[in-house]
Amino acid sequence: MLRYYTFLCWLLLGLFIVKNEIVFAASFNDRVITIAVNKTSYPYHFQNNQGEAAGLTVDLWRMWGEKQQVDVVFRLMTWSETLSQVDNGSIDIHGGLSKTRLRAKEYDFTSDFFQQKNYIYIHRDYHVREIDSLKPFTIGVVRHSSYVDFITEQYPELVLKFYDNRFDVFNAALKGEIAAFANIDRISNNYPKYRELSQLFPAYKRLLFHQGGYASAVKKGNSQLLNFIEQGMRKISREERSGIEKKWLGIDKKTNNIVLLFSPEFAPFMTVSSSGEPQGLFIDMWRLWSEYTGQIIEFVPQSFENASEMLTSGGADIHIGFPDLSFTRGNLTMYPELRTAMQVYQADIKCYVHINNKRPATSADLAGKKLGVFQIIPNVENIRLLFPENELTFYQDFKTMIQQAEKGEIDGIIGVKDIMEARLQVANVQHDFYALPDSLLGANIYAVTSKKNNRLIEIIKNGFELIPEEELIKLERRWLNKDSKGYFKLNKQRAQLSKEEDSWLSQQNKIRMGINKNWVPVEFIDENGQVQGINIDINTLVEQRTGLNFTYEVFDNWQQMLEALKQQKIDIVASATETPERRKHIIFTDSYWDMPWVIIHQKQQGERQQIEDFYGRELAIVKGYHLIEKIRKEHPTISLRLVDNHEEGLLAVQNGIVDGFAENIASASELIRRDSLVTLSMSVLEDLNIDENNYAIRKDWPILRSIINKGLATITPAEKKQIYERWFEINIETGLDKSVVLRVSLQIGAIIVIVIIAFILWNRRLYREVKIRKALEEKMKHMATHDELTDLPNRLLLKDRINHGINYHRRQDRTMAVLFIDLDGFKTINDTHGHDVGDELLILVADKLSGCVRKSDTVVRFGGDEFVLLLTGLHHKNEAAFIAEKVLKSVQQPFELSVGEVRIGCSIGIAMFPTDGESESDLLKVADTLMYRVKAAGKNHYIFNTDN
Prior knowledge:
By secondary structure, the chain is of the alpha/beta class. It is built from 32 helices and 44 strands. Strands 1, 5, 6, 7, 8, 9, 10, 11 and 12 form a 9-stranded mixed sheet that branches. Strands 13, 16, 17, 18, 19, 20, 21, 22 and 23 form a 9-stranded mixed sheet that branches. α21 (627-634) links the parallel β33 and β34 (639-643). The longest helix has 36 residues, at 750-785. The N and C termini lie far apart (74 Å).
């Protein structure tokens, strides 16, 4: 009987609910429901570029209307109007707003759509960590917004400045009218200056001041409409709501975080530490992305195969480092449900050969050989095209592939450079393999998502645009080997080409460049058959900055090369001087370096010869040089002997056939240095124009000139200087054998003795000049290996000393320690008092650190406020701990600076040789990682690797 009554009660209740729902529907089906939408509350509700209502809640309301079978109309208005129109009954429903106690007096709220966080965004130049510290600042807020209620209630002392809408707040922030503003969890990226605003007010500088419900509202007392709204919202499934949220937010508001997949077998890009923590270059890149976007992220390790299923099913949002999807040999047929969000990196694919093999010079020398390729590798189709005659074997794991190469069962292994070198190190065979110098291809790495989540793709791209390139370059230096080019470094220097230039470039596989085979040091072929020289180094930079690809065709002399260019048998030559005659047949780029003309002549002709000193004489000059016409026109009394190459011209001077040989200073000095020609001298022709070196290009390719000019514009003076210092050497060596002097003196007599004495006096003067030069060279060497501010050794010297230490300690079976030190609190002092005071502090810290170690140890300024100690000849790691404690106590003592007394601390990570690594890069990486662990744990401490 009890069961019967219970059933009857439930039945009556159900009938009552159905009846009420029918009544609700009937009362609203005969009219249009109006919904108030704010024009600037992106991405929840806003006015799009077509002037229509759009956003997350707009889509939600459209779906609600379908479920309830009613027509909805959106009214776009300012924020104040949305509230007043609902309050006076002109509009039925407010599209979406935060719940506050004041609003609850005027409106009835629906159930929460989701939880919303409210932040105060602070200008990046202000160091504020607590909301109470914002009292001196003016905070911009939208008039009548929930921010006003929350801030005035919780922080009544803060100063607010009111604006009519969100865009007005943003404009005021960019103009500097306000130093902070209130906003939701993201800046509206439909704001025209979104990127500029996000960089000035980054997500990592914001402070949370409220978290609460975000819902819809109706006029107070309108319970019938409120119930009708709730009825429709219940009909929207969790999956439908999640789809709308992902469309506009890129995430499901229920979880409110982004799940990132990574494949842990690909160190140094993405892997796990010994404690199971995600680490690597890509991991740190996405942590930066999280900082700048404010998105909460979660890392999940997963293989590439399983990643596809997780992304498709919604179990994860992004794979952070997926190879080019075309590698699947079927134009995405293996992963048709995935989409590349953006390219996040590019690395080199190289070929590695075991040292027991006959050493090939390039990858082309491996024709017909067996090659191993890791199965998951970008651009596999292009690798097949590069090795059409090779048998390619694909491996599922690195270990098997490397072992096969060690046994000689395959002749080479192909893989992404940084990954392969890390794998060779893991296998402890890094010294048994060498990389061929040429890079096969660029390996493009992408962030990959499901095709369904277009909004997330936009968020990914916007986030990476906010990260300063310098921070990404710093991560590369931390994770990659020193010889790695670095994608972000190269990308920063890359020339900005037009669409037309990019299109032309994509159609040109190779640009044929003529090379003079024996024009040292400008361009030449070395003993190994490789092209070398100043021009080649310039070419390499131009290739990196523009995407051009030069191939070299070798010529015996300049004249042949110039004729080949005119006939378009080649496309370009370097180090060509522009003349009116040449412009008839070829076009020229901007000048990329200048060299004065000189004349090589016999020393007995005297020093500092000028062009007039050769009137009535004969000069040798290489055929095709533009200087020929200039001398013939302006100095007609000089006879010219045209020679095929530089050796012929030099030989003519040595044998007295001509009185001099005209050449540029770089090539001339190299000729004299190489052959130790002490009987010859070199005079700079100051009255001739400086020789401007340009690229000469076939006349029908003006677009190539434009591309190269853009590439040349990216080359810095420091880069040019580095190239010139490498190739342009003039070594002065002089001196006389005293026994020869004495013998000649006795034989020839007093007059000759006087001449010799005069020569000795000249020689002594020259000796003093050489001595000064050598002292200057020693000073430059010291500057190259020491920090300018503290005079401590720098990174370059540290690398050398660690490597020497490794070799010594390995032989002696001793222990060595690397202490990586980062100052705690230095940035605050530097930002507060300026860089001069910061430099003052760094000098004092350097002195204290030097006083903590022995003379046999090394104290290095690694950069910024980072120092490294190299402790040698240790018996136990307790000795390193003793020094670390000594450093901590010393650094924590007060420093007397010009601005008064300051206090700082330091965090220390300690790596031990050989337990933490057997290379300089491994030891520094371990010590650096441990130092950051100390930072995260509270600073002012030191730790060793607990795995040892």
